[in-house]
Amino acid sequence: MSDLHYALAEELEKLAAGYRALARGEVKPYEANIQDISIVLTEKIKKGKVSEIKALLKKYGATKLVEVKKKDYEAFYKEAKHL
């Protein structure tokens, strides 16, 4: 087996182990944070979606990203990705 195949097999095993642990409830799924949201919003701003971003912020009772409540990060992140 080549080194590339070996490396790929190792990475797939790590991925499978992670999914097994998630299924057993041993780890929490990834949760969005303010940096993730900021990256998405920056991409959307570059695409001219400023008014949509302002509307989304308003929906969550904010005028700036730092005003979005942590409990709303996941929902905000998902909606921002779909702008």
From TrEMBL:
Superkingdom of origin organism: Bacteria
Full protein name: rRNA biogenesis protein rrp5
